[in-house]
Specification:
DHBP synthase, 15 strands, binds adenosine monophosphate, binds magnesium ion
């Protein structure tokens, strides 16, 4: 197994990025940033989001610029509750069933946008549909209630890189490009939301924090799975995504020379996703372990096999994309 090298330094650029507390003064600063069209990273139960006022074109455009995100990749609009989301989309019975069961929570629905919606057209990159979510995190929820306008928020990381599950992950790549980050510690789930397209027969666009089996049980039917078949509808569908600087080798049972081994279950390794083979714990550790090894300057990471059921589907989806050849 390889030795872990010293940490890399962080590069700062123009904007002064404030780290905000979760008290009322911090939340006031946070809503002020959003109102002025600024960029604010905030915690959710999935990963840290890079937020901007979803109704201001310029603010939404700044998200794409700060992330270096291709402008064909639409963003999710976040709401404090289902009722406030309903005025922007054409609701459906299936939307009712899923949101009554899973909201607030880690499921994003894609629905047709209403003509009178005030959401910026840039948010959905000119598509007639829009992705919506109500996060299950007290700080995100306070922010959304206090701001009282939808917040556009992809994950707070450069496009294609590992999603942030801690404020320090956000700062290491976006300091100097955003006005603030609310520091609320580590995200509980550590994996992005599951995305379901309801503009057609319910279709999985991205596995995520709520396992597919549970969603299928709730709907009483199987989800269609057109991941990447009809072109890219979600950035997580790009073959290389969630990528650390290091090269990844999957389904490894031991480390080769120079490799650092990320294990799963009871095994000898450098870092373990979950010693107890618990998929929820593994999901929460996945991005944090990759960030940690990147920061140490590790060049080659081997990852042990992770079972494909429950949250394992989303974990393996992220690992496969993180290991994919890059352009
Ligand atoms: P992230 O950037 O990780 O927060 O992911 C946001 C996700 O929402 C991406 O996978 C987007 O492509 C997806 N999304 C947003 N709007 C739409 C839409 N109208 N149709 C399909 N997917 C969408
Ligand atoms: Mg992302």
């Amino acid at each position: 197994m390889a030795n872990l090298k010293p940490e890399r330094s962080v590069t700062m650029s123009d904007i002064q990025t404030m780290t905000l507390r979760t008290n009322s003064a911090g939340m006031k600063q946070a809503t002020d940033i959003l109102r002025k069209g600024g960029l604010l990273a905030f915690p959710t139960e999935t990963v840290y989001g890079l937020g901007a006022d979803a109704t201001q074109d310029l603010a939404v455009a700044r998200i794409y610029a700060a992330k270096g995100r291709p402008t064909f990749n639409p963003l999710i609009a976040h709401f404090p509750d289902a009722d406030s989301a309903k005025s922007h989309v054409h609701w459906s019975e299936e939307a009712d069933i899923l949101t009554n069961t899973f909201w607030p929570g880690a499921i994003t629905l894609v629905l047709e946008k209403r003509q009178d919606s005030t959401l910026s057209a840039l948010l959905s990159t000119g598509l007639s549909s829009v992705a919506i979510r109500v996060p299950d995190h007290s700080i995100a929820s306070n922010l959304l209630h206090q701001f009282s306008s939808p917040i556009a928020a992809p994950s707070a990381n450069p496009s294609g890189a590992i999603s942030p599950t801690k404020p320090e992950h956000v700062l290491s790549s976006l300091a100097g490009k955003i006005e603030g980050v609310i520091d609320a510690g580590a995200c509980r789930l550590g994996l992005e939301s599951t995305i379901i397209d309801l503009t057609v027969a319910p279709t999985l666009l991205r596995p995520g924090g709520i396992p597919v089996e549970i969603i299928e049980d709730c709907l009483g039917k199987k989800l269609q799975n057109t991941q990447a078949k009809d072109g890219i509808k979600a950035p997580g569908q790009l073959s290389s995504h969630y990528a650390p600087c290091a090269k990844l080798r999957l389904n490894a049972t031991s480390a080769l020379d120079e490799e650092v081994l990320i294990g799963f279950g009871d095994m000898e390794c450098d870092l373990n996703l979950s010693q107890d083979a618990d998929l929820t714990e593994a999901a929460a550790h996945l991005f944090a372990h990759l960030h940690f090894l990147d920061k140490k300057g590790v060049a080659c990471i081997a990852v042990a096999p992770v079972p494909q059921h429950g949250l394992g589907q989303a974990i393996n989806d992220r690992l496969i994309r993180a290991a994919a050849p890059r352009d």
